[in-house]
Write a structure and sequence with these properties.
alpha+beta; 154 residues
């Protein structure tokens, strides 16, 4: 089993988390394309999460990795959501303090995150749309078995 854990100190900026922490958690055949920090809503407490779009080498398969930041500052994979088919992202509400973004994965699970109200969230939407378009342009049928490379990340 491929262990995914990386310690994040308070001194690391979001960019450093993107370039250093996430990529070091991935296999050499997987590349972090985008990252955003937010809060998972709907749980007993609002919990910090790092969302990363990861592409598998040699394919158009992209996955939204959701990393939990534990009390020690370690990043641990919380959820893996392949981006294809009925995967959808919707802006539910926004204020200058942030926006609530609903993610509906291909299994019908709905997760809501509080993300920054800035261009980073807009880029999340565009990166997901790009990933969906790239995947659908190369597939004749939608098959979750194509995402076999995710084994070991769970």
């Amino acid at each position: 089993v491929f262990m995914l854990a990386y310690h994040v100190t308070e001194k690391l900026s979001l960019m450093e988390v993107s370039k250093v922490s996430i990529q070091q958690l991935l296999r050499p055949t997987d590349t972090c394309k985008f990252i955003i920090r937010g809060r998972l809503l709907g749980t007993q407490s609002n919990e910090d999460r790092v969302l990363a779009i990861v592409q598998h080498e040699g394919t158009q398969e992209h996955v939204l990795f959701v990393f939990e930041v534990d009390s020690l500052g370690t990043l641990v994979v919380d959820k893996l959501m392949p981006i294809y088919g009925s995967f959808d992202v919707t802006l539910r509400s926004s204020t200058p303090g942030g926006c609530n973004v609903e993610i509906n994965n291909v299994n019908g699970e709905i997760i809501v995150f509080r993300l920054p109200y800035d261009t980073t969230t807009a880029m999340l939407f565009s990166q997901i749309k790009l990933a969906q378009n790239l995947y659908s342009s190369t597939q004749t049928c939608e098959s979750p078995s194509a995402f076999d490379w995710l084994r070991g990340y769970e």
